[in-house]
Amino acid sequence: MAWSEETIQKVWEKGKEAPPNDPNVYRKDQCDAWMKRDHYGNRQSQYGWEIDHISPGGTDELHNLRPLQWENNVDKSDGRLKCKVTANGENNIKQ
Asked: What is the dihedral of CA 7, 11, 13, 15, to 10 degrees?
């Protein structure tokens, strides 16, 4: 799905802030994996992220969307979040 820049930004803002990092640049997803704002849609980056539907098959409204590190999003094949990737210091690691 092609999301508007406004929706991408609003979903980004739902990510967890991780002081002292600039929340306009870095945030964490629900699994505590790092995401970098300008790496949206980048599956070549450990900090790449995508927009996930919290309830699969649900609406595209903001309340049903969240940012997820891309590998965590891909790993949600059965609809459940498994947290394949989390953070270790400044890097993401696979569980």
From this structure: -170
